[in-house]
Design goal:
Number of strands: 0
Distance between the termini: 54 Å
Number of domains: 2
Mean pLDDT: 80
Radius of gyration: 21 Å
Oligomer: single chain
Helix content: 55-70%
Strand content: under 5%
Shape: elongated
Structural class: mainly alpha
Bound molecules: heme C
């Protein structure tokens, strides 16, 4: 009886461990080349995706949004990803994005110096890693 009980517990635990290992493996950088960490994603969501995403807002209702959709990044070819990442780093470094008129109306979308650095570092490092892969 005790043995059965042990198996009863051990089997689901084993299956759970296996599932965990598989899901862990599926998110390693070698499988999914472009990595967008949560902190970077939340900066993008806050400052960029209103114009570079599917998400509609009062602003984009009467402003043409850019054809460049950040959500498409993972679907691009590696070469295009590198290209876009370097552009992101450039426009953020130069303070061209998010657009000034937008930030004036929506001050919360402004990038702090810290978030700017996080974005630029991420974009440049990702571009670098994609090139050397
Ligand atoms: C108010 C809307 C708006 C916001 C917010 C905004 N962008 Fe843009 N962005 C545009 C538009 C429109 C273009 C198209 C070209 C232009 O007008 O300069 C563009 C162009 C770009 C380009 C060049 C794309 C290409 O393929 O040449 C990049 C890169 C970019 N934006 C990145 C960003 C990033 C990163 C953020 C957030 C930090 C951001 N943008 C926030 C509207 C916006």
């Amino acid at each position: 009886m005790k043995k059965n009980l042990l198996l009863f517990i051990a089997i689901p635990v084993f299956i759970a461990l296996l599932a965990f290992r598989i899901s862990e493996r599926s998110v390693t950088p070698s499988d999914q080349k472009l990595v967008i960490p949560e902190n970077v994603q939340s900066i993008l969501d806050n400052s960029c995706t209103h114009c570079h995403g599917e998400q509609a807002s009062w602003w984009t209702h009467f402003r043409p949004k850019s054809k460049f959709n950040l959500g498409d990044l993972p679907k691009l070819t590696t070469a295009d990803q590198v290209n876009k990442l370097l552009k992101i780093a450039d426009v953020v470094k130069d303070g061209k994005m998010p657009k000034h008129r937008y930030v004036k109306r929506k001050p919360k979308a402004a990038l702090s110096e810290e978030n700017k650095a996080i974005l630029v570092n991420w974009a440049e490092k990702q571009a670098d890693e994609l090139v050397t892969d």
